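Supplementary Methods. Inverse-folding protocol.

Structures were first reduced to a discrete structure-token string of length 257. This string, shown here, constituted the complete conditioning input.
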């Protein structure tokens, strides 16, 4: 029966094959890369071509905008950190730039990795620029003339950057770990799980709304028709009225979702 190795087993393998220091670094790099790919896939699910955040945006546009900006910033930081300099003062960073010192004895691999790092740096330039202008500092020009968040542009550039970073790690993995590392991850969808539930609730609300026949457009008439439809007992009138009143307020939005 096949088993799935846990993360610590993989770390021990890396340390055994690469040495404790480099093995530990490579394990952290691989996990950070996987987190960046996960952030990309979640962002893409919500705001890419599938745009599964559309129902949420119709019901709560300002909050959906907050989610968009938060996920974009997280993705930008993930990419920037993976391409940071090897050290900050006395502290060492978890970055692909820390790899070359550990493979100095592998001349051909070192040359290949340095070239791949140059490619990754180029692809990650957009993220580092955005981090410096909007997150790490407050650029006056950006503050005066904000561009907002272009989800399509970020997704395209982030995908290229994450794949380029993967190229660095995959080269090391192939040469020193005898492992072909896929540029993808298997994970339990989180954003989609939320949006599916929202879509289900919206369909339920549409179904109920389509069967309510109020006398006029007033909220009181809508609540009365709601109670009649569901034969609401007198003791549950207040709870039913709250549900009906909320549905009455949102009914106009349901058609736009």
């Amino acid at each position: 029966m096949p088993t799935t190795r846990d993360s610590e087993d993989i770390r021990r393998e890396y340390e055994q094959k690469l040495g404790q220091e480099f093995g530990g670094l490579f394990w952290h790099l691989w996990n950070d890369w996987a987190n960046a790919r996960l952030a990309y896939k979640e962002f893409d699910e919500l705001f890419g071509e599938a745009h599964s955040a559309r129902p949420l945006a119709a019901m709560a546009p300002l909050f959906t905008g907050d989610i968009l900006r938060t996920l974009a910033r997280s993705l930008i930081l993930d990419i920037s950190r993976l391409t940071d300099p090897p050290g900050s003062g006395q502290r060492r960073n978890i970055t692909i730039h820390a790899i070359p010192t550990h493979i100095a004895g592998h001349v051909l691999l070192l040359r290949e990795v340095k070239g791949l790092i140059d490619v990754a740096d180029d692809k990650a330039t957009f993220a580092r620029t955005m981090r410096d202008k909007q997150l790490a500092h407050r650029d006056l020009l950006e503050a005066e003339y904000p561009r907002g968040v272009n989800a399509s542009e970020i997704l395209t550039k982030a995908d290229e950057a994450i794949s380029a970073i993967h190229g660095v790690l995959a080269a090391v993995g192939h040469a020193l770990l005898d492992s072909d590392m896929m540029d993808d991850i298997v994970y339990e969808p989180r954003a989609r799980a939320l949006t599916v539930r929202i879509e289900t609730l919206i369909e339920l609300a549409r179904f109920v709304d389509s069967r309510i026949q109020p006398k006029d457009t007033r909220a009181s008439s809508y609540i009365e028709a709601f109670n009649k439809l569901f034969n609401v007992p007198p003791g549950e009138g207040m709870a039913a009225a709250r549900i009906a009143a909320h549905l009455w307020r949102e009914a106009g939005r349901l058609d736009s979702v």
